[in-house]
Amino acid sequence: MTGTGHASMRIDTAAGSILCDPWVNPAYFASWFPFPDNSQLDWEHLGDVDYLYVSHLHRDHFDAAHLKRFVSKKATVLLPEYPTSQLEDELRALGFTKFFKTVSDEVHELDGGLKVMIQALISPTDGPIGDSSLWVEHDGVRVLNQNDARPTDLIRFTELGHVHAHMLQFSGAIWYPMVYELPQAAKTAFGKQKRERQYDRTWRYIDDLKASHVFPIAGPPCFLDDELWQFNDIHGDEGNIFPDQSDFIREYAKVGGTNGVVLLPGSVSTLTADSCETTHPVADVDEFFARKEEHLKAYQERQRVVIEREKASWSHPEIDVLAGMKARIEPLLEESVRMAQGVGGPVRFDLTDPAGELVESILVDFPNKEVRIAADEKVRYRFRTERRLIEHLLHIDEGDWVNSLFLSCRFSAARIGQYNEFVYSFFKCLSEERLQYAEGWYESQRPDAEDITVGGWSFQRRCPHLKADLTRFGIVEGDQLTCQLHGWKWNLATGRCLTSVGHEIRSEKAGQPEQAPAA
């Protein structure tokens, strides 16, 4: 296994080679870069593979320019079983013609005895409508590349035999809480909670699988633009959500972990059923991370011209943003039932010039199904960003504003009340295909009939958020339930979700007799 940066790796076996999620070019409006720098690797060689696996369409996993230039079009794409065809369509547009369409959770045997299984996650909140994990077996050695997928459990993988190498995400990949207009003390407190939850989730997955060796991957990105430099974890901020691999090794040791392996770009791990031997492109990995700020500053200088070139491409003053948003969003508002009801109020976009001065405020009115100039209405959410970023999204006909604008962190946000999942789900689904899928998925969700009893309360076994098994992830303290998979909370006395609008839980005090219906 050769480390190729972030969530990317090349897996070589006697039966063939698989390149996973190669990402080199900046993503999300030139905000995210892979760290360490992987641009100097021999990509001509690394891209000459038998198989390509792209886990999902997040642009730190799907690097279109790199895939087009460096990955052999003779490679067979191992395709996850997603409900929409977008991943396949985009890969075909890049010149790939050979696809092996997998069935989720089903083991497939390829040439030479190479076995693969891809588990596809397909809720509207999984990646940009879909995320996946790759399991590989050859000659009795098994690898699970979980990357940043978050299955409710890893039971399907444990059924297939002991895993020798487990690659998984441990660091942040979101804009919360940094972009929210909150006092710095609150941001730090929320960030610290999120950082701890990230690690807690990682420990749970590691304990589930009990692999011989654990590889922290899929993060963190680094931020090389001066405007975003503060997001790098080099400032001693305990609320930073982007810890790196060296921090993972330290934290893992605190919970008894001794089998962690770091892959830098160019590191090579030779794995057998009994051992894992790793060589690195640097003499001392610990010293490398101790000099992280120095490496980042040099990396920033190398990429400065790239960032400036990208910024110069964003402005499209010929575009009427209000008219463009009306044309893109209003037809989808008309068709949206579940998500529009879930948002339940207007959302405002405050658009600024590059100097930060407000130039236009546009309201997306979910109840009235229209886009218009904002007046002084109260809004559920408010996003403030540069007008030229919205111009660019309209210019390129981007159908997913969450995994483009929001992940860029080039905005600020404010909201009234709790987090609302439906706001972000809707702006992820700005196409007919995505909207119809998401609406159908939400409509199909029904409380399941099985109840469990924990801590003196009876409640449904499956989390109302993403169906996690609460016998494993549920923690009850007093009358409050926390699902540790994503940190969502409920008041069991009322069934009300304390984390987000909607998503009520069916619950009652254990042993409480069922009330007779009213006369």
UniProtKB/TrEMBL annotation:
Matching InterPro entries: RibonucZ/Hydroxyglut_hydro (IPR036866), Rieske_2Fe-2S (IPR017941), Rieske_2Fe-2S_sf (IPR036922), SCP2_Rv3818 (IPR057330)
Keywords of the record: 2Fe-2S, Iron, Iron-sulfur, Metal-binding
Domain Rieske residue range list: 459-519
One Pfam family cited in the UniProt record for this chain: SCP2_Rv3818
Domain of life: Bacteria
Coiled coil (UniProt feature): none
PANTHER family on file: N-ACYL-PHOSPHATIDYLETHANOLAMINE-HYDROLYZING PHOSPHOLIPASE D (PTHR15032:SF4)
Protein name: Rieske 2Fe-2S domain-containing protein
Species, as recorded: Catellatospora aurea
Lineage: Bacteria, Bacillati, Actinomycetota, Actinomycetes, Micromonosporales
